[in-house]
Each structure stands twice: as C-alpha cells, then as structure tokens.
Fold each of these.
Amino acid sequence: MALNYIVADDSLFARYFIKSALKDIDPDAIIHEASSGEKVLEISLNNDIDWYLLDINMEEPDGIKVAKELIDKGVDVAKIALITGNKSNDLMTQAEEMGVAYLQKAIGPNEVVSFVVSLRNFFEGACV
Amino acid sequence: MSGAALLTEEEQALSVDVLAESLNLGLGHVIEELAEISGSKIELHVPEVNMIPKQDAMRFTDKMKQAKKAIFVIQEFSGEINGEALLFFSEKESLNLLNGLLLDGEEKLIEFSTTEEEMLLDLTNVAVSGVLYVLSNMLDVKLNTELPTCEYGQFKDIQKDTMLLENADDMVLFLTISFTVVKRNSKAQLMFFQPNNSMSTLYDRIKMRLGI
C-alpha cells in the first residue's frame, strides 16, 4: 500500500527538491505539501500520515512547535524529521531532546545525493 | 522594459521564492556564526520577500526620514546575475544590532563612528556574501561580490548621495529581514535587495535547475 508523506516547507523550490528526493526513494509515495506549520496540522487531522518531513523556519508555528504538537497528539517521534539548511547547534539540541531526526537540506546540485542518502537512512530508522 | 515585467505572475512568484529561500539559508548560516562569536542565541525570523513597484519602495523610506540619521550599506554583485544589495538602518537600529553582538563586559556603543562603520560593513559583507553563496549553489551560477560601501548622515543628504534606486527596475525586490539577539533582546531589520534587470535571467536559471 502506498505511504502518505507530508512535505512542509514555506519555499516552493525547497518542496520541489524534497519531493523529488522522496520520489527517488519511494516512487509510489503519496505526498501532501504544506507551506506552513498550520497546514501540516490541518492535513494530519484529515489524513493518515506515515512520515512527516518538516522545515524548521516557517511562519508560526515553526517546524519544532509542529513536531512537539504532533508528538503530544501521539505521532511516533521516529516518523518525524526536521529538515533545515541551518547548521544550528541549538536546533540540533532541541531536535535531539524531542527524539526527532534532524536532516540537512540540500542546497546545491552536489548535495542532492547526500540528502537522498540521509533521507533513506531516516526512513530505515538509522539516523534517529 | 524591466526584467521583472517580462515574467508572468507565476514565474515572478517562483523567482521570489528562490531568493527568499537563499536569503533564509544564507542568513541562517551567518547568524549561526554570529551567535557563536557573540555567545548569544540569535533568532532569525522568517524573511518577508516581495516584488513591489519602485515608488512603493521609495515610500517606505518615510520611516527613515522620521529616524533622521540613517546608515546605508550598498554592495554590488555581478556574474550571471547582476544586482545590488542595499541595506539600511536607522542609527538607533544599527547601534542596537552592533551592541547585541558585543561580548559580555565589552563597552556598549553609544554613537555611530568609524569603528561602528567598519563593524557594519563587515557584517553586511558576511551577510550578503552568505546569501549569494547559497543562491549561486542553488542555481549553479557564478556570482562575485564587490566590497560594500557605507553612507551615514541625515536621510535627505544620503538619499542624494546614493541616488537611491536610481538604476532599479520599475519593480524592485523588497525584503524585510529581522532577527533578535536573545541575550540583549536587541532587534535589527535589514531591507532592500534589487536585482537589476536580472529577474528574467534568474528565472531562466531556475527553470534549468528544476528541469521545466
């Protein structure tokens, strides 16, 4: 059965690349796009979501707040990844404290392969 | 005809989206470095990016007129995309920003002078270079930056000296970036970024990158 994913990022360009990486890994993926944290919560209410890929820096609620809310609602932490282009120690600590994965966003064409690998590792439970 | 006017609304939106993302990522890296240097957590708020008519951008400068003394930092960039980043601050905002980045125990800055100008130029150089680095990586284009220059004084005088937006397209990219240095609760806002005649080139590069 096809799996349901949420790809949340306020940038259309960033969502495009995350979706593209996701389709490489799971060609049958059903991808729900969200451009804000609020939209993520709305989609998750009405759909049975298997995986959450959340940008951190979005209009309030940001990715971290959304992740906390999802966990409070009973979503398995292993199903949530925060995706960001910022190598912030503070953000990494917050992600670690919550127990969610923290993935570096691919910026240039040279980083796409490593992003696909880290995404694949996340789905296989290797980088939580 | 301006570069932006050649684009459809959808193409313009995607171009603005890419610039916003490069701004977000580029400044994110810069702010993380500043946080380490200053020993304070710095929160970057989601940047607002819009294409607006030049006249509307000019009207925004009313805020600066009220602030009286202002600092403009201008940095040109060139390569496959040409443009100019024009950041401005009121004197109060610039001192607020620089004071926020001082280490504990360092003497607070109370007026804008040569030292503060150098700090602001360094900061601008790092910020603009960071954003352009991300943009060039995202789109696989070559971009070079010139060293920034700074103008300081009464707004009306600076406006004459810098010929504000004189070479800009009819539509300019208008950004509001704000961040907070948490330890000192000092906030700063940077504004303006104008890619001269470059929106069409930018969109062409985006299409190539996305394969559309």
Amino acid sequence: MNRHADLLPGTLDLLILKAVSLGSLHGYGILLRIEQISRGALLIEQGALYPALFRLVRQGYLKASWGISNNNRRAKYYELTAGGRERLRQEEASWNRLVDAIAWALGVEAVQS
Amino acid sequence: MTLLAYLRSLISALRHPREEDNDLDEEFRGHIERHVEDLERSGVPRAEAERQARIAFGGCARLKEECREERHGFWLESLWRDVRFGLRMLCKSPGFTAVAVGTLALGIGANAAIFSVVRGVLLRPLANQDEDRLLYLRQSVIGDDDVTFSVPEIKDLGANLKSIKELGTMSQLDFTVVGLGQPREISAGVADGNYFDVMGLKPVVGRLLNPGDDGPKAGGAVVLTYRFWTTAMHSDPGVIGKTVRLGSYEGTRSATVVGVLEPSVPYPVETQIIANIVTSPHHLSATMVEGRVHRMTEVFARMAPGAKFESARAELNTVYAGMLAAHPDVYRPNDHYQLTVTHMHDQINSRAHTILWVLFAASGLLFVIACSNVANLFLARTVRREPELALRAALGATTGILRRSLLAEALVLCGSGLLAGVLIAAPMVTVLSRYAARFSARAVGLTLDSSLLWISVALAFIAAVFLAFVPRLPTGDSSRGFGISSSGLRVAGGSRRRLRIFAVTQITASFLLLAGAGSLLRTLLVLQQTQPPFETAHVLAVNLPVMTDGRTPEQVSEFYREVQRRVATLPGVEHVSAGFGAPWRDARFLNINFAFTMQGAQRENALDDPRARFRPISPGFFETMGMPILEGRDFDERDRQSAERVVIISQSVARELFPGQDPVNRELRWTDPVLKFLRMSYEPRRIIGVVPDLDDQDLIPSATMTIYQPSEQEGWNGQRLFVRAKNDPYSLVPAITREIHEIAADQPVEHASTLDDIRAEVMSPDRLNAVVFGGFASLALLISVVGVAGVLAFSVSGRTREFGIRLALGASPRHILTDVLLEGLVIAGIGVATGVLAGFFSVQAIAKYTTDFQVPGALPLIASAALILSAALIASALPAARAARVDAVQALRSE
C-alpha cells in the first residue's frame, strides 16, 4: 500500500471533476480514470465515490444521465456542466497555489536545518 | 443549475423516492458488475472476483443512505417523516396535545384578532384623499382643552393663508326631519361649500356640497351619509332630488337631497345627513355670524400642495396669535388661549390609541403565557422521553437529527394551534370590533384581516422553534446526565430550572393582566355602586324633538304645555314635567353653562365670574325627579314670560356664594357675553328656591353649580318629557305616544327610557372594558393554573424516589404535602413579585407617553395577588396529594 498516497480531504471532488472533464464517464469509469491519470498513485475507496458524485450533482457541477455503455449495458453517465468547468479551473488554481506554498515552505526549512 | 431545474429535481425527488432508490440500485449493481468483469479478465475466478468486488465496494445499504442524504430535498423529506412520527406521538397523548393546541390557539387567535382590529382602526388609511394633508384645528383654554370655533374666529384664521389651501367647517345640529321616512329627529352636520373638498371625499350618488351652496340665497341642499342611506333609506337611489323639511329651533326650511357621501369616518361626531348653511336659520343669524364667543363649529384644513406640516402649523399659530392680540377683551391672557393643529388621522385615532395598544400588550402577554405553558408541557414531555432520545443518540442520531424530530413535533403542535387559533379569531374580531366601536367609528363592521394571517403563521413558527430549542438533548456521550435505565425519570437539574422559569413567567404575565382587569373592574363596581342621588328608577325620559314647521313660537310652547297637561291625566302617571336635556344622555345640552354674578354675594377675590350649568325646566321638575326643595318654592303658573324673572339655584351655588346666609329673594344676573345672541337678557333674576345638587353629567356625582330657569321665560322649550310613574314606566309609553299624536300627528316621540337605564347605558363602555380585560385575565389565569399544576405534577413524579426515601426514613406524609404546596407557592410568589416590579416599570414607561393612564390602586393588586396565590395553591394540591400518598416500598422498588 506504500505506493498509494493518502487522499487529502477535499481533493476527491477535485479529482472527480478532473476525471470527468476529459469526457463523460460512469462511476466505475471515473474510478479507473483517476487511477490512470494519477499513474496508479491514488486509489479511491470505491464506496466514497458515490456520495461525492451525488453531492456534485446537487451542487450543479455535474450532470447525470442514463446512457448505453460500450458493452450495451445501461449506465449512468456523468459529465461536467459549465459551472463544473469553472469550479475545476478555480480548484486547480488554488491547489497549485497551495502546492507551491507548501513546497516553498518545506524548501525553506531544509535550508535552515 | 437554474432555479427551475432545481425545483423540478426537488419535486421529483419528493414524489418518486422509490424510483430514485431503484436507480441507485442499478447504478451500484452496474459498478460491481464491471469490477467483477475486470477482475475476471485478469484471471480471478468468477466467485472470488464477485467476493472481492463486493468487499471493495463496501456496504450498499450505508452507501445508499449516504447518497440519499446528498440528494435534493433530503432534509425536507426527513422532516416530513419526522412530522408523521410526531403526529403519531401526539396522538398517543391526546390530553397533552389538546391542552397544548388549545393554549396555543388562544394565544395565536387573540393576537390575530387584536392585530386585525389595531390595523383596521389605527393603521388603515382613511377614505379621505391625501389624508396626510388633512388637518384638524382645535382651541384650548385653561380648564377646557376641547373648544370649537366661532364664525368670526374662522374668518380671522382663514384669511390669507399660504400653507393652507382651504378651510372647511361643519357644525352639528339636530333637525326634526319630515320627508325621509317617519318624521324624526336626525343628527345633522351643517357644512360650508368647501367642507367636502377640504375633507377630500367623493359622492357615491349625485353630488356633494360646493361653494355654490353657500350664502343666504342658495337653495337648501342635503347630502346623506353612506350609512344613513344604506340603513334608513335602503340604498334607494330615488331619494336623490327629494324635497325634505328640516326643522330646527329657529324655524323650518326646505332642502333637496342632492347626493350620498362615500363611506368615511365621521369625525368628530357621527351625523346622518350633512346640509348646507341655509337650512339652519341659526347659522344665518347674527348670533352665529357675529358672535365671537358663540363657538359651535369644527374646523378642518387642507394644506396647500408642497406645504410642510410644520410650516402650516407655524403659520396658523402666527395668525391665531394676531387674532388673540386684536381682541384682548375676548381672549384674556389668564385663559391661555391656544391653537392645536393635528393630522386628521392622528386626531381620529387619539381616543382609540391608548386602549388598543393596551389590548395589544394584553394579547402579547397572553401569547407569552401560552408559549410558556406549552413550553412547560413540552419540556416535561421531553424529559419523560429522555430514555427514548438517549437510545436514539446512542444508535448514532446526531443532536441535529434529534432536534429536527422535536421541531417536527413542535411544528405539528403549533400548526394545529394556528388552525384552531384562526378559527376562533374570527368571532373574537367581531366581539372586539363591537368593543372598539365605542372609541372609534372606524371599528364598525371590521372582520378578520386575512392579509395579516402571516403574522399568525409567524407567531406559530416562532412558538415552534422556541419549543424545539427549549429542551436539552442527550449527546452521544450518554455517561453524562442521561441514563437509559427504564425507570428513567431522574430529572436533570437544568430542565427543572427551566420549567420553573416558565411557570414564573406565566404567573408574572397573568398577574399583570389580572391586576389590569382588577382595576377596571373596580372602576365599574364603583360606578355601579354609586346610586343616583334620587329615586330615578321610575322616571321616564322621552324625547319630543321640536317641530317648528308652520307654528309660531307661542304655538310651540303651547304644544309642550298641552303635552304635559294631557299626560298628567293618564292613569299611572304621578308627575310630569319637561326639561331641556335628559340627565346623563344629552351631553350636548348638558354642557351648556354660563357665567353669572350675584348681588350681595361675598366674593373673596375679583376672579372671573363663576359659571353655572344652565337648566330651563317646567314647574314640577323637582317633584318628578324626586328632589326635595330645601328652601323657598318651585316654579309655578305665575312664572310666565311676562312675569318677574326668577331662578332656582342648587345647594352648591348657595354654599359657594352665600356662605352662612339665606340666598332666597336675593338676585343674580347672567353675565356671559354669549347670551346676547340667545335672545336672553342680562336683567336681574330673583332667587326663589334652593334645591340639592343634581349632577346630571357624571355618574359619580360631585358638587355641581346649577341654575334652573323656568322654560316659560325666554323661550327655552323643554323638548324632553319627564314622567314619574307609579308602576312600570315603560307600560306608559304607548299611552303617552297616543296622547301626543292626538295633539300633533307627526310629532316624533323617541328614545323613551328610564333614568336608571340611561345610567346603565352610559356605564356600558366601562362594563365592556371590564368584560374584555376580565376575559383576557381569566384566560391567562386558567392557562397559568394549568401550567403551575403541570410543573408541580412533573416535579412530583420526578421526585417519587426522593419522597419514598424520606417516607422510609420517617418523614410524615403531611410534611411532604406541605413541601410540594410550598414549592407551588414559591413559584407563584416569585411570579407575583416579578409582576409587581415589571408592572411598576411599565407604568413608569407608559406615564411618559400618555397622561390619561391611571395607576391601579392597591386593592386590585392585593386582590389579584391573593387570587393567583390561592389558584397556585389549588393547582399544587393535586400533585401534593399524590406525593403524600407515595408508597415508600413501591417507590424504592421501582428504581
């Protein structure tokens, strides 16, 4: 399990938005996509995914609709709304700022010690 | 997402919960299926793959629950579930529910009713156009702050005003009207042509008066008020154009009905018709036109467009000051003549203001009492439910969820209370508006103001939230304070303290209401116990309005003499006489008083001449009233118009002006400047008798200076007939009417009632006051008693174990009985003490705003304190008896 990083609180929403931004997906697909784009470093607890999806739908960032999957089965697909796209942009920016700041702070400490 | 889409999904979530669940199932199944396939593809056997996929996915039921919580409308949905649960819980304890709903209904209903009346009477705009530019003018002098205007004064005031567009004037007069149904006396306003324009009123039929109706050459014109038209004329449009005869003292004139006024508030007096000036000979006489002190006219003003109230008032005051300076003989500085200018709206409301706001406060108090009581019951109930709540908390319900279920229950309670409250509010408004109609013409026919329903809804909601947040809730940590043990009732100290606080609040509020009602009741009792100075139960007063049409003044006088002669011969009649006004009823006539001076009277200083009530009467008046003649003689046949002028004085006049001397055969003279307009002379009049004081204006008599004059001398015909009957006075009325109609067929014979009944009628506002407030107070008392009893019952059942131990240790049941009774008394005592303090401070606060507020005496306070304390004692008796009967063994075993 060492190769998996623990998920920081709040980052799950960001990852879902990012995954869906690359094309509409069903729940299991989102899971796979996140694993894929994080090169397997991030593993989502499967059960936690759905409440998060419902929450994002309620907040209006995702839109859900029933469709047919590759192997001809009914599946619920999630796609990004305009609001979701904007939200993703903001979240990305603020995440980057946070990462920069933390990295900077850690770097400073290293010099002093 | 748009709001519409949100609402749509909310509705679908609420309407199709089952469908949403199926969707969830399908979504989860699909997810697991795909995972299984992936695992199979990587070589895991089917059975193992399914097992792994399920483990990875987690508990479906829990997840579904979590998803549902994220869905739209989840909160509402579960609140709905809680409401249904609450409904079931409440149905299980119908007693509690009935008391709580009933109490809330009273609190909410009373408030809705009072709100309706306050809004209808005080806040609703008047029918008058641009009412904010409509002003009402009044003068005041030392000793009389309600003085009307004379025509010369109005002329002076109205000249060259810049901030005032126009003045409108109106004076009240009674006409004997022939031509509108039965001949009868009708209260009328005589108005100038600008009056309606100034008032900003419109006709519903025909036209109103205009400046063309002014002047002695104009034809008589009459406008009917809406109320008179709809009630007496049955809304007959054919009445327009009719010619009527209007009879007043100085003659009868013809007038044409020209229109009907829109519904509006009559102020300051309610008149049934409004006529132009030419219909009243008096208004064209020199008395009226030249008499600067002949004041009988109301003045209204309409501000010019753009003028400010302050500047209008300032300008009027400047003009008024100029007028005062120009006539120092009339406006003596000692009298402190002053002009008051008010907005019409405020003026109309001034009388209703205090009483309605007091009622408003009373209903607020009732609401506080109701809420406290229900909070008490609710709190006690929640404490009983603590085991259940604690169990739910232990099973994972958060405080929020528990709170929500309490809120749902409270909403159910308050919602039912609201419904019941609105139902009882409608009849309450009817009663209250009848009551308020005594103070304001605007209250007539008010109904429940449905646009104010939201206030009731808000009150119910406030009550519900209050109820839901009063009880303390168990937290997940059940080790502190709350046990789930089934024997349960170990009441936490905090809850008990809150219960007591609510009980004290109720007692405080009820005490305030009771004290208020008590002082009103005392006023009423004092009035009722005051006996009229003389035996008046058998004296009948009958109005015989003057009919001048086609008669000379001598014929009119002869008519009244003839009436007295013929009625005297009727069987069952003991005495007959006539007077100018019926005691306690004809306020306008009873107000007449003149300045006079006495020859040889000892006057301590050269103050202004004293004033005495002026009462023209016929011979036999004192006998009819049952008054003895203390000195001298009564008027008789000798005292005719041509004979020597004579008067009879009341004891107070004699005592005041001839202390220790015999006033009989001395002379007095009227000195009032108004008299020269009334065709009365200033010649000396010989005092021929002294009679006791008869205060015919106030129910509680005080020393009264009255001067009686024979109605034969100087023509003040007695248009009120007084008959002393041997038996039932009312049985004489048909015979009297018959006799009078034999003399004059169209003579109105009206308002026959005994003097006792007149007194009772005058008293009725006080009686209504006492009834309305007494009703409020008894409701409050009832609710509080239930509240105190509830608190004690609860406290006793919570202390069963304690009582058991005490009994087991040898305490006597009587000891425990006293203990509980004392607890009740302490609660009531603290409540009363707080009430006294609160009452004291609110009286201080009220006294700042209004002067006509009477501080209730000590007696009502003590009486209501005693009443509350004994009620509390009775309320505690039942729980106390229960406590004393506790079986020690049972109590201890039950733990």
